[in-house]
Amino acid sequence: MSINSSDTNHSHSHDSHLAHHFKNAEHQFESAKQGIWLFMVTEILMFGGLFVGYSIFHAIYPKMFAEGASHLDWRLGFVNTLVLIFSSYTMAMSIHHLQKNEKSKAVLKLWLTVACGVIFMCIKAYEYSSKFHHGLFPGRYLDVAHVGAEAANLGMYYGFYFCMTGLHGIHVLIGMGLIVWLALRAQKGEFGENYFTPVEGVGIFWHIVDLIWIFLFPLLYLVG
Amino acid sequence: MGNLNNSSEPKHSHHIIPAEIYKKVGIALTVLTLLTVGFHYLFHNVMHGSILAAPVAFLIASIKAALVLLFFMGLKYDSNENRFIFSLSFFFLLVLIFFCSLDIWTRLTIQSTL
């Protein structure tokens, strides 16, 4: 098959991944990447809807939102921000190493990214459990008298908090699963300078998770 | 290596972004995060509230987001097509904000006693 294809100057690993409806590996890579960017548009719109909802209700009930934010520990959010930034760096570096055919370095960077995800989720779990412990539940599940809240609708703040951080957390978990899959495949030597499309795609997904957290941190923890 | 079909393969898509750039971006993001927290401390603990708190926090967040998009996600080295596709999401987000604001504004006008 590869003898007649236009990419005879590529290695064999290319051909094994090349679907017949693409001109060449480059065409396939570009198409895959474009698909990922289209997916990212839907991600921005999904989280964007929550951000717009937050802004509207924040404008209507500023004091209630300030009270809600005062219960959050910004130091935990701060540590999580640093963890995600570092994980974005290691993810980007894994692609850099693959492009240079440095397999073991790439695998290490991928596992480091997964480790950062684990740290992030552990801190998140600690935060959630302490909120639940203090009776800070979303919506009508929050007992205002029990919590001693000043705002009667404090449950709304925690509705936003749990929806936004929960949805983000689900993304982190999915991303971690995908990166484990990448690390195992990279370990087998399936990726290199000629083929790293899945790593590029998952990388973009992981960075958007970081990108969303960059806005969630000041929104929920600092400004309130 | 043969360069038979180089014309059909734009080099930029497989552009290797130098490790040095990733390192600089990582450091810049960390410094900006420290700056966010620093401003938060200044506005809340020293000045006890300022109208600048939110704009400053989101300005820094936007700069961080731009760094992630341009370098980590590689939009700086990507095709115009992909840049356009992604910018569409922000356009539609603005449409959403516009109509929501319009809705709230008109409701306020209806309920107003003026």
Structural commentary:
The complex is a heterodimer of chains A (224) and B (114). Chain A is an all-alpha fold and 224 residues long. Chain A has helices at 12-17, 25-60, 62-70, 74-99, 103-133, 144-147, 154-187, 197-223. Chain A is elongated. The termini of chain A are far apart. In chain B, helix 1 (19-46) packs antiparallel against helix 2. Chain B has three helices and no strands. By secondary structure, chain B is mostly helical. The longest helix of chain B has 32 residues, at 80-111. Helix content of chain B is 70%, strand content 0%. The chains are: A mainly alpha (224), B mainly alpha (114). Chains A and B meet through helix 2, helix 4 and helix 8 of A and helix 1, helix 2 and helix 3 of B.
Task: Give me the secondary-structure topology.
The complex is a heterodimer of chains A (224) and B (114).
Chain A: H1 12-17, H2 25-60, H3 62-70, H4 74-99, H5 103-133, H6 144-147, H7 154-187, H8 197-223
Chain B: H1 19-46, H2 53-72, H3 80-111
Helix pairs in contact in B: 1-2
Top keywords for this entry?
heterodimer; A: 224 residues; mainly alpha; 8 helices; elongated; disordered N terminus; B: 114 residues; 70% helix
Q: Rg of chain B from C-alpha positions?
A: 22 Å
Helix count of chain A equals 8
Most extensive interface: A-B, 52 and 52 residues
Strand segment count of chain B: 0
Count of helical stretches of chain B: 3
The average pLDDT score of chain A comes to: 91
Quick check: average pLDDT of chain B? 85
Q: Shape of chain A, please?
A: elongated
- Which H/E pattern describes the elements of chain B? HHH
The unreliable regions of chain B are 1-12
Structural class determined from secondary elements of chain B: mainly alpha
Strand content of chain A: under 5%
The end-to-end distance of chain A, rounded to whole angstroms, is 60 Å
Report helical residue fraction of chain B. Answer: over 70%
Quaternary assembly: heterodimer
- The CA-CA distance between the termini of chain B, in Å, is 78 Å
